[in-house]
């Protein structure tokens, strides 16, 4: 007779550890696939999982085995027309290879690759591995959301999961001692008396005394047993209190040039950059605020949808965006409380007279207050006006100003990684 | 009659499974005299089955990336509909653990119970290889010990160190078994005690072996006088390395030992695939037919059962797109059924070929076969002309010195014996795996290890050989040489791996 066990409710994912180790072992290939995928994909399906392909040669586990050559024999089924002594032409090498060997791919050709899927979560994990917003140093108490739990002694109320067994039992023990003490003492006396009476010579008096004592003993026993082992008010619970946790407040300004000089390709590249940034913030920083600013001759603050998909265009006045950003900072994001980040993308083309205004706005209203300012200039051409201006400014703000040039979509991800690489211990370099 | 059916629905419940198991057990035990370990049937989901696949079926197993790779592969193929999962996995342990998938219909569960819990189970308990080489009582405990030990090593020495070591051990796993020597069974508790003793002993023993550091000038003369070490070539590479490697820590030796034990535990399964599956298939077929004859199951049940059974024992011909070699279920089932036929209704041909068993009691003959053979000897002894004809077997010979592949034998009077011998060879592991043994250790000199590969029919090693030498070197720590040698002693090719330890 068999013993039947239902294991269906047992935990799943027993292979999770092994799977993780496997991914870790091939993380180089996975990273490469992820990075390829980013430059290949449309913005809209940027955040899906990915299928990873690893050449079978890299992944096979070696064993001592026979290679091709020598003499070998094999038995097959389903003979139709062969008779003993028939000679069969060898199939040309590489074409299926099958015939006698039974090791069709021993020569290494035509090997299938090992393909598997990683989930969306894992994809993003690899995508943003080791990246962080630098200098996030301003921390303060927020009113809600982020708490730590601390133990704070014991309490009379709580939920059953938090019962403090030791304290509860100790309290029950004390109560029992307190409530039964008198009765137990009396019981001991009676028992001693009964014993004494049992030894003394019989008389009616002794017997009647015994009866009285027995009755009292029975009463006492009932009373003692009526005291509960554990009572409601013995129960003690571990008390945990919520303590608000200081956490950083941060805002990211995304500033994109949508002027006429930005061709469709350049805009697409810029949008890719911002989309990566947006995914990165969404994944790694739950509570960061994002402000989207697009500008041509005028700048406006827009929502995410407009930012990524609207088509309005015009001339170029970069300072309009910087001024708007300055105003927004002043209005809503006091630098004393907020960690402020800026990412700006442009083709570098600006109305010449405007460069000075940009310079002033940056020096006065922006750069002193931000944690980190990144600028990417997109395009195949030589560096434009804005680049020289920023390059000049960068010397004074080395710790927080990073500029990079991007020629095409394929360079976006590497540049992105470079800009937001996690620095050891968050030091400024 | 209707009310005698155990159930008529295709949905299973625990009650009906119990009822079927009771009947199957009764028939297996009382009617067919199958001797089994007690059964433990575990119902699992398909994702748990994939987990089980990934850890080679064992309920507990140590962690390693290669099992993750296996899992990812199974998951990928299963979710894309490229492969189905097995209906069951059964473990050679006492009690015998069988996993049944919850997706199976009632009929499938009955089939699987008969197949695994009474077929495989009785094979595990009866076959001489399993009796000699595996310890069904202790395996689960031993694997728990192994898992715990390896995870402790990972904590102490780092996952990477352990992984590197396991990679090398796994590569040599097929060369970590004793093929002839017989181990003494020990329990897991004893194993734990002995592990401590081993630590002490090994270190002393090793120090003794490697005590003498090489002396420059005298080296040459001394080398001549030193006795050969090892005195005889060693086939169990992992055992030799575990006991004699100059470069390993105690914990590394213990891990090699664990891999060795696991390899040894699975070695009988690798040698009895055809027999084991044939035996189990024969019994699920026979037992379920008996149930039908007794009126315990209805026609619908039998139709579904026969459909699955037919799929299991299908054997496509060599020119079919579905052909992937000989199906062990098909061959094993055909041979077991054929032995019964030879016993019950022998023809003149059978009496000529099998005088010993023709007309004997089929039950005791099959029992004898199950107990005393492995695939190679089973085929050599019992593959009858009828089965050869039924399968249209033919043997090819592929010699790279000839321009053509020759048909060596087919299913006719002249060919039966030849086909049978060649098919038997095909299931001989020592024929399939290159014969590689430890030949010499330069004890007084550079400590190099020399392996010898004795060529079989001139077949060379494949391109993994350099990678493999790296793994041997990883375990040995000093130079490793490998010579491919003709049986007449002529060295055909040599491989060397010079270590970085100098």
Cα distance, first to last residue of chain A?
73 Å
Structural class of chain B: alpha/beta
Order of helices and strands of chain B: HEHHEEHHHHHHHHHHHHHHHEEHHEEHEE
Strand content of chain B: 5-15%
Largest sheet of chain A: 7 strands, mixed
Rounded mean pLDDT of chain A is: 83
Backbone shape of chain A: flat
DSSP summary, beta strand count of chain B: 9
The tally of beta strands of chain A, per DSSP, is 14
> What is the share of helical residues of chain B?
40-55%
Radius of gyration of chain B: 26 Å
Apparent shape of chain B: globular
Low-confidence sequence ranges of chain B = none
Structural class of chain A: alpha/beta
Chain-averaged pLDDT of chain B: 89
How would a textbook summarize the main sheet of chain B?
A: 4 strands, mixed
Largest interface: A-B, 62 and 101 residues
Low-confidence stretches of chain A: 94-110
List keywords for this structure.
heterodimer; A: 429 residues; alpha/beta; 12 helices; B: 502 residues; 4-stranded mixed beta sheet; 3-stranded mixed beta sheet; 21 helices; 11% strand; globular
How would you sum up this structure in a few lines?
Chain A has 429 residues and is an alpha/beta fold.
Provide structural commentary.
The complex is a heterodimer of chains A (429) and B (502). By secondary structure, chain A is of the alpha/beta class. Chain A is built from 12 helices and 14 strands. Chain A has helices at residues 16-25, 27-40, 56-59, 120-127, 165-199, 204-226, 264-284, 304-309, 318-332, 354-366, 385-394, 409-419, and strands spanning 3-6, 50-54, 71-76, 87-89, 114-118, 139-141, 147-155, 237-244, 246-257, 289-295, 299-302, 338-346, 372-378, 401-406. In chain A, strands 6, 9, 10, 11, 12, 13 and 14 form a 7-stranded mixed β-sheet that branches. Chain A has a two-stranded antiparallel sheet with strand order 2-5. The longest helix of chain A has 35 residues, at 165-199. Chain B is α/β, with parallel strands linked by helices. Chain B is built from 21 helices and 9 strands. Chain B has helices spanning 14-31, 46-54, 65-79, 106-126, 128-133, 139-157, 159-171, 188-209, 219-225, 237-244, 250-271, 273-293, 299-312, 328-344, 348-353, 362-372, 375-382, 385-391, 416-426, 429-432, 465-476, and strands spanning 39-44, 88-91, 96-101, 394-399, 404-409, 435-441, 449-454, 480-485, 491-497. In chain B, the strands form 3 sheets. A 4-stranded mixed β-sheet of chain B has the order 6-7-8-9, covered by helices on one side. A 3-stranded mixed β-sheet of chain B has the order 1-3-2. Chain B has a two-stranded antiparallel ribbon with strand order 4-5. In chain B, helix 1 crosses helix 4 (106-126), helix 4 (106-126) crosses helix 12 (273-293) and helix 6 runs antiparallel to helix 11 (250-271). The longest helix of chain B has 22 residues, at 188-209. Chain B is globular and about 75 Å long.
